[in-house]
Amino acid sequence: MDVGKAIVCFQYVERIKSELIIAARLLESIIDLKGDEQKGANKLFLEYLDALLGEINIANNVVERQDFSQAGEKVKIALEKVQAGLCEEAIRQVSEAISVVASSGQWSMQILKDNGLL
Question: Which of 24, 84, 87, 114 is the residue whose CA sits 20 to 30 A from 7?
Answer without folding.
Answer: 24
